[in-house]
């Protein structure tokens, strides 16, 4: 397998997991159904640009499977959005929601656009246009989108507003119910407390559960690739529970601070400078003598207990997998490890905590948001985090037990758990 086509990679993962399922005729037929998206929606979005010219954007919504509940998955605005990518992401969302045991299926959307080239007004018109284009196919009990790469709570707010207009909803409670069509909204628009940190916090709960199983304790070290929403929050939570986070990175490179970074100070410094280089913030000061700059590639190969890829896909490959020194890899990004690298890491005894489990905290709190809007409730951050912790621990235990029973890696067992749940729900 090439490792380049994300949908092929996703199908390879499913095939590997399927080998562990009972080989009955009925199950095989259901598996064939699970391999294909149930619906692919292609849309064109005309947007009046600031210069008065109408530009046509291409968008997609892939609804992979809804056996367990409404389709669920983000909307990505990116110049490299492709149908194969959106299809793979929709399939992984179905798996992620099932492994987290949420009453949701899998979907994903995307628009081919570089949002950085749009003005604020153009971005709003594009967002509203996309919502109009897919309006017939979404709804609280049909398909529930959310933010993904380059889309935000504000964008979800515009989309909700557009849907309310299209459906002509006037009543406050009906508006609130309809707003559950989109999650990841700003709190003022009905968003959930704790959503912003949920992916990172969920990752911490998953990691702690696995480390306990592995019998690893004491002052552990970690390196985190990426310092965006997920990377920063993971670094912050790891630091808070006593890890020494010795390296973090962004697209411009990595910093190595042997004494352990102070994530909050490092973020402040990065915001001020625009980049991480020189932000060697440890304890309560940032000091150039406390660290040095290294490459993103070097960060991945540091001698740490836990490596956290939290930026891009396919960064751990067959080329560098033999040089990884971490004992545990917590996949916070989607698809950071290629299938070839996975095999090498497993043989080397490195525990890879798969993305569909490790980063499922985000969709879990999205599910809480959907539930709160439908019930007309607003939970406190403590309530949200408590529910998140219970869920992450329970589902990590289920994946761990399956891996012991089947004598296989955590990714395959997560897929087995998820596939079993979906096939059971399929009529
Ligand atoms: P983000 O845009 O906030 O942050 C991405 C980070 O990656 C930035 O710090 C950026 O500088 C860095 N980066 C970009 N190119 C890089 C490179 N070549 N090398 C190293 N770092 C680079 O995005 P995010 O929301 O933090 O998402 C990160 C990953 O986590 C993505 O794979 C995303 O799909 C996944 N994820 C996010 C969520 C969520 O709730 N935000 C949920 C599940 C999965």
Largest sheet, spatial ordering of strands: 11-8-7-6-12-13-14
Structural class: alpha/beta
Count of spatially separate domains? 2
Mean pLDDT: 96
Order of helices and strands: HHEEEHEHEHHHEHEEHEEEHEEHEHHHH
Low-confidence stretches: none
**Radius of gyration of CA atoms, rounded to a whole number:** 21 Å
What is the percentage of strand-forming residues?
15-25%
Q: If helices are DSSP runs of H or I spanning 4 or more residues, what is the number of helices?
A: 15
Looking at the overall shape, the CATH architecture of the largest domain is: 3-Layer(aba) Sandwich
The biggest sheet, with number of strands, parallel, antiparallel or mixed sense and barrel status, is: 7 strands, mixed
Bound molecules: nicotinamide-adenine-dinucleotide
Can you identify the CATH superfamily of the largest domain?
Answer: NAD(P)-binding Rossmann-like Domain
Tell me the distance between the termini.
Answer: 32 Å
Form type: globular
Specify the helix fraction band. Answer: 40-55%
CATH class of the largest domain, anyone? Answer: Alpha Beta
CATH fold annotation of the largest domain: Rossmann fold
Number of extended strands = 14
